Structures are given as structure tokens and as C-alpha cells.
Amino acid sequence: MATVILITAVLLVTANFCKAVLTDGVNEPIFTDLCPVLNWAENGVTLDVDASNEEQDYMDIQKLNMTLAPDEWRTKFNKNEQGKPTRTAEQDHPKDEMAAQLWQTWVALANQLKETDQRDEVLDAAKLKEAAQTTLRQARRRTAEVAAAAYVLKQALDNIPNKPGLNEQAEVKKLIDTAVYGRSPKGQGTDFNPPGMGDPSTNRATLCETTGSIKVDTLAEVAVCLCTKKNDGGSPVNEPCRHLTTGSEVDFPTAANQVLSKYDLVFKQCDHKLPAAISAPAVNAAKAKLWSYFNHQTAATYLGAYITTGCTGDNNAGVCVKYNGITDADPSKTNEIGWLQHLNAAGLRLRNLETYNRKAAPLKAKLRSLRDDIYNLGTIAAALPQEETGKVVHLQPHVTATDSKAEAVSCSKHKNNKTASTASNCKWKGKTDTDGTCEVDDSKVTTQKMWQEQEIELQGNLLRKN
User: Fold this and answer.
1) Which stretches of sequence are listed as region Disordered (predicted)?
2) What is the full DSSP assignment across 373-402?
3) Are 217 and 254 in contact (CB under 8 A)?
4) Less packed terminus of the chain by CB within 10 Å, N or C?
């Protein structure tokens, strides 16, 4: 493809050199390839990759977790009257790296959830506002697990290089705007004054034939130089970029504050009216096409139709942009032109975004799945059959046969009342302190099992709270 573009450009340049005069439509090929870039600036860009940020999903998960947590867990992160946190990670969780990293998030969320209606709003989003206590306990346990998993996913996402900003589409659009207008946003005609732009009031060469440092740094200026009618005598090319439809002739501006308005008339000849998809390959392809139209010579480099003498707009000279600072001795200097630099930057930013997205997409999808999971807990619980209310079931401690046998063996080792009385689950049966047997005390075993089960449940609750 690149070879075809290069051959086409060589043939075009050769044809221009061989022409006795330049005619209407002589710059139509370059204008056709320029229009998509101008359209990105004029009508907007759409990204063909997922540029969403995982931050909202992550914060939604942590917010529900804190809302369901006990009040004392949330209030310790509140700020005082001076706006400073009342507690620190080092105070409450010394040498806990995870707590230290989460602390800022917890403080931010705690101050978003101070009021009851703020917490109710979160519960309502998860369909848990009117949920039964059993459902809330289950939701608290599940949300705590999800919050921990979300933290791990967030850490993995943060460690991927070239993490995109919150609005990559807007950042890419700024680079395209700067390539076209020299600034972002576009602004009005009086705002258009790119660095180094000449005042065209004297003659066309003031704007289109730069001297010294590289000028004509914007594609708006390029479009005006390539596509407008000559502004003084001679034999002008009236419609150098006639494109698809005839359109009306666009006169060359006679003042710097007219450049943007004349550019607007030129852009109307582009058949583009809607936002268009943008990607690294699309930007690089557009840049390669425009590059192919450069004509590097010994004295200067020309962009557009050129025969001889300069870019005056005459049909026997050239309708072009002349870059005096670039020659065939070092064509790489072409990359120093402002609009090419910004197109390069846009392509690089998009490439980094696309590379990041390939690595991040499965992690972001998992994070979104976890978020949707816990915010649907209330809906799922409401759809399930509900247990009968008003009944209290007392669970009895369970002692297995294996437990009883082990206790019996242990107790049988005691041969007198003195040692038997020191065993927690044994009792002495005998006429004297030395004449008798040591047996299992079932009442003690049952009580101990009950306390053990309650302790396990209590520990589980504490872990879920924290």
C-alpha cells in the first residue's frame, strides 16, 4: 500500500512539473486525503477501542462495602472540622500495606456517606434499602469479599504501563485540533494566530512561502494555501481543490483574521459532516498519505501543486506551501512541521491506549462483573422464596462419636480423684479418692462445644466487619 502511494505521488509530481499550466482541481488528490483529518477537528472523533476508566466501578464496589459495614468502621474515617482525617493507617493498621493504600479511598468514601440519605441512595442502587437483616448480612459478607478482589484487580490495572487519562477521547481531539488550528478549541477568526504565521495582506507568498524557521504549522493554513483563488492579478487557478461538487470559488484572505473564515469555506468542499472513528492505524495512514505529497528539492520542500518560481497561486507557478527550512539533503526535518508533530503525538497516544486496552480489557471486564454482582444482590434475594417468620430455631451443639471416644480414652488415664479433677471434661466416680474410675463429663463437653462454636462465629463476624 505504501509503495502504491509513493508511486502515485511520484507520478503526480512528475505530471505537475511537465504541465505548462496548472488547472482547476490540481490539488484535489491531496485535498481528498486531507479532508478526513480536517473532519476529525471539525466534527469530532470517536474511539474504536474501550477507553472507559475502571475507577467508577471500583469506587462503586468500595462504596457499597463501606455502606454495609458497621457505623464505627465508617465514622473512624471522617474528617475533623479542619478537614483532616481523625485517624491514620499507621495508627489503626501499622505496617499493613493494603490498609495504607486503601486509606485514601476509605477517607474519601466516608465523607461521601456521612448522611443517612447518602447511604440510603447506595443501598437503593443495590436494591437493599428494604432488605431483611438476613439478606443484609449475606450482602455484607459477599461485598467484603468482592471489595478485596476488586482491590487486587485495581492494583493489577494500575501496574499496566501508559495508563490512560479519564477522557482519552478529549485528549486525542485536542491534539487533532492543535494540528489543524494550532490550538484547542478552534476559537474565532480573531483568535487564529499560529506562531510564525505571516500576514497575507501583502501577498500570497507572505503566508504560503515561509522563510527561516518552519512556519505554516497548521493544516488550516495548508488548506488555505492549497485551495483558495489567487488574490491579485495574473492567471490564477480558481478552484485548485474542487472536490466532488463544484462549490464556489474561495478567495485568498487579505488579513490574518480572515484565514480561519476562508478555511471554513474550503472545508465545506469536504464531503464530511459527522464525527468519525479514529485509531492509531487511521492516523498513521492519513499522515503517510499527506507525507507522500511533499516534494523535497535542493532549495526547499513543497507541498501541493508546483511548477516553478514559487507558491504564488499563478497557473504557471504553483498553488502550494513552500518550506524553506527543509531540503532534500535532510527530508527527516519534515517531521518538525507543527501539524505533523501533533499528528505523530495523536497516533502515539492512540497506540498506547490500544496497547493498554488489550492488557486491561479482561481485568476491567472482571471488575465490572463484580460490581454488577453485588449491586444485583437485593434483586436476586427478593426473587427467592422467603423463609417463614416468627419461628426461632435453637441449634444444639453437636458432639460426634469420635469426639466422645477420644474424651473417654483421655479420662480413663486418671487413676485417682486428684488428677481427674484437673481434667476439664472428666469426672471421678468411686467410693474413695483412689478406688473408682474416671469417666467423661457429658455436660462439660456439651458446654465447651457450644462456646467453641460461638467463638468461631464471632471471629467470622469480626473478619467480615474488617
Assistant:
1) 415-438
2) HHHTHHHHHHHSPPPPSS---PPPP---HH
3) no
4) N
Three cell numbers written together for 27: 490539488
- Residue 260: beta bridge partners? none
**CA angle at 61 for the pair 60 and 67, rounded to the nearest 5°:** 85
Q: Per the structure block, which three cell numbers stand in for 184? A: 484547542
Contacts of 158 by beta carbon, 8 Å cutoff, 6+ apart? none
Interatomic CA distance for residues 317 and 233, integer angstroms: 13
Domain ranges (residues) in the chain: 2-46+173-336, 55-163+358-383, 405-465
Strands 301-306 and 318-323, bridge-based pairing: antiparallel
Distance, CA of 197 to chain centre: 36
DSSP for 16-81 reads HHH-SS--TTTTHHHHHHHHHHHHHHHH-EEESS----THHHHHHHHHHHHHHS-HHHHHTT-B-T
Quote the CA–CA distance of 200 and 264 in Å, as a whole number.
17
C-beta separation of 376 from 127 below 8 A:
yes
Strand partners, 295: 302
d(CA 118, CA 455): 34
Taking each continuous run of H as one helix and of E as one strand, the counts in the chain are 18, 8
Please name every residue paired with 302 in a beta bridge, in sequence order, or none if there are none: 295, 322
Helices 280-291, 338-375: axis angle to 10 degrees equals: 170
53 contact partners, CB below 8 Å, separation of at least 6: 164, 166
3-class SS of residue 109: helix
Contacts of 453 (CB under 8 A, 6+ apart): 397
- In sequence order, the 6+-apart residues with CB closer than 8 A to the CB of 304 are 27, 30, 225, 226, 240, 293, 311, 318, 319, 320, 321
293: DSSP letter: T
Cell of 29: 488528490
Q: How far apart are CA 182 and CA 197, in angstroms?
A: 10
